[in-house]
Amino acid sequence: MHDVLIGVNIGRNKTTNTAVEQDYTLGIEQFGCLADYLVINISSPNTPGLRQLQNENELKNLLTSVRRSCDKVACDNQLKQKPLILLKVAPDLDEDEIKSISSIVRQPNTYIDGLIVSNTTVARMETLQSQHRNETGGLSGRPLKDKALETLRSFRRHTQGQIPIIGVGGIETADDVFERIKAGASLVQIYTGLTYSGPPLINKLNRQFATMMKQQNIKHINDLVGKDDRR
Ligand SMILES: Cc1cc2nc3c(=O)[nH]c(=O)nc-3n(C[C@H](O)[C@H](O)[C@H](O)COP(=O)(O)O)c2cc1C
Predict the structure, then answer these.
(1) Phi and psi (nearest 5°) for 103?
(2) Whole-angstrom distance, CA of residue 98 vs CA of residue 94
(3) 152 falls within a domain
(4) pLDDT confidence of residue 210
(5) Is 44 a catalytic residue?
(6) Checking CA distances to 81, which of 72, 89, 131, 214 falls within 20 to 30 Å?
């Protein structure tokens, strides 16, 4: 038993021929008993072939197999619940792709427990000034913020708020957290912000966020999730 939540992120390998069977299924079999939630990562831009799994047929096939493997996870400790399945998506999807994914993840054989929006972007914004701006690979942090937020809004719209969303991408301040939750996130994650500000950032954001909730007389986080929809 552990008193923190453990999430395990599973992505395909570059050299695997049958990623669904070899990487995702094996990953679920190995980690399903340890994890409270499994992230099915189909959005890292740095592994060739990985993002293709977001295509309709490949995604249906992957999620059908993921569901089947997850249902088979048998833990010695009977108290352990089966892990939740979260799907992590890219911020570079167009509206049709978002619509298609949103439909698949709500169907009986391919349903998931939540979405993580989003991974890094392959886009290069005109405002980037770094000498590294033309390098290939995933871009994270502040330049990703608006794109990740818009992608979240779009997933929220197409899933009609029926799938919980974890918001990630360029979150650095309590205002960012507030904005992401109002747009539809039930939780947020921070990656790049942590590398700049270190672990104290988490307590600081929690404190500032609690103050914002109080100032705006919001009693429960659920009253804030997706509040932008109700405008
Ligand atoms: C160096 C680095 C490695 C990452 N590795 C993974 C990974 O293995 N799996 C994954 O799903 N996302 C990975 N990500 C994406 C982050 O988890 C996160 O989704 C993304 O960076 C956006 O959040 P941020 O702007 O707070 O960094 C990685 C990001 C960076 C910068």
Answers:
(1) -75, -45
(2) 6
(3) yes
(4) 97
(5) yes
(6) 89
Per residue in 19-57, pLDDT (tens digit) is 999 899 999 999 999 999 999 999 999 998 888 898 999
Token code pair at residue 231 = 């405008």
Specify whether 26 is located in the same domain as 104: no
DSSP collapsed to 3 states, 85-121: EEEEECCCCCHHHHHHHHHHCCCHHHCCCEEEECCCE
Query: Does residue 1 have a pLDDT over 60?
Result: no
State the catalytic residue, choosing from 44, 65, 186, 197.
Answer: 44
**Which residue of 119, 121, 142 sits with most ligand 1 atoms within 8 Å of its CB, as the best mutation to test the pocket?**
119
Which residues on adjacent β-strands are paired with residue 84? 37
| Ligand 1 atom at minimum distance from 41 CA | 11
Instruction: Give yes or no: residues 122 and 82 share one domain.
Output: no
Residues 6 or more apart whose Cβ sits within 8 Å of residue 46: 137, 138
Structure tokens at 119: 């991974």
Residue 229, judged by CB atoms within 10 A of its CB (0-12, 13-18, 19+), counts as: middle
- Residue 215 pLDDT: 97
Q: Is residue 131 part of a domain?
A: no
Indicate whether 82 and 99 sit together in one domain: no
Over residues 171-190, the mean pLDDT reads: 98
Is pLDDT of 231 > 80? no
